[in-house]
Amino acid sequence: MDAIEVIVAKRDGGELTAAQIDWVIDAYTRGEVADEQMAALNMAILLNGMNRREIAGWTQAMIRSGERMDWSALDRPTADKHSTGGVGDKITLPLAPLVAACGAYVPQLSGRGLGHTGGTLDKLESIPGWRASLSNEEMLGVLRAAGAVICAAGSGLAPADKKLYALRDVTGTVESIPLIASSIMSKKIAEGTGSLVLDVKVGSGAFMKTPERARELAETMVALGTDAGVRTVALLTAMDRPLGRAVGNALEVQESVEVLAGGGPSDVVELTVRLAAEMLEAAGITGKDPAEALRDGSAMDAWRRMITAQGGDPDAALPRAADTMVVEAPASGVLARLDAYAVGLAAWRLGAGRARKEDPVSFGAGITLHAKPGDAVKEGEPLLTLHADEPARFGRALEALAGGYEVGPTAQEHLPLVIDRVTA
Ligand code: URA
């Protein structure tokens, strides 16, 4: 087989055979198919799509490129959650220990932020001593000690996806539903979880800007998981505005701890409890109330065990940025709109995110929201606090925020927090 034949077949709108898919993924992983050839094939897929059989074959070939984890030694069901990424989306932090406190094991492989969306590992690394890289044996040890583990995927898991994702990132081929679905699901299936809840974000701060595109992605991923024997369900949730009141690494850890202590912003609590209920149902665990596990402190206990087992100090002070700047409400009225993308971009420019994979992040940088859309505000009172290590960053962050919020007589319509639920 040769790469040009496969590229031309997809360029001309044809279906790839199972043999072509297996060969091209394997040959690319081994370096026999060149980056420029794979980039051309990715673009042909982005433009012409893949059918369900092709997507399933593509996903399975990426899984076979590496190891498959196995949790059969554990005596309780496993459950995991994946979010397609958003602004202020720290839900994994309270959710993993919460679901563990309710009786499931949560082996969660997470990623780092790129662009305006944050990454779970960057957030947790703001806790002094906490380690993201664990061996498979260490993962098992943390799971046994705490019921939940959140760590980086090792280099052996879906290496084809690692190479492909890096290539897509620099060739304008990220936004293809078959490629996003197969990328996410190859890692989640290889991770070996028995059940999976997908949080597919919708709105300006998400990959998928409309409910229609998000539903298509959700249906594709649910079908892939189900076909691979993983009980999979997806929620479509709002990302037209930021989630919670904190955006930025240490700021989001702080907010997550507030949720685990029984407080925290209502949207973060509502989504955490809803996703926990979905995970428990998918894992076949009945008779547990996640809201009660937040109230009675058992979720907090699991959090403390999880952080400690990964070398972190749950009582240590979190990093704070050296400087702050307050953005005041320009008028009195109601915060009519606060755009998720504008806030995410501003937080990124303040230093919370990275421009290239190798860049460090500032743990203390980010944005605190003093009002959420629909809240009453008074002219001159704080609307947002910007946090940065270098004051020179404030100007570009303010530029990102310009036009990103509006104070008016009434709130504008926004998406419901949970828009839809997709099952097989
Ligand atoms: N996250 C992934 O892991 N892959 C994608 O393609 C997009 C988001």
From TrEMBL:
The keyword Transferase applies. It holds the Pfam family PYNP_C. Belongs to the thymidine/pyrimidine-nucleoside phosphorylase family. Homodimer. Keywords: Glycosyltransferase, Transferase. Residues 334-408 form the Pyrimidine nucleoside phosphorylase C-terminal domain. GO terms for cellular component: cytosol. It comes from Nonomuraea glycinis. The keyword Glycosyltransferase applies. GO terms for biological process: pyrimidine nucleobase metabolic process; pyrimidine nucleoside metabolic process. GO terms for molecular function: 1,4-alpha-oligoglucan phosphorylase activity; thymidine phosphorylase activity. The gene is deoA. This is Thymidine phosphorylase. SMART domains: PYNP_C.
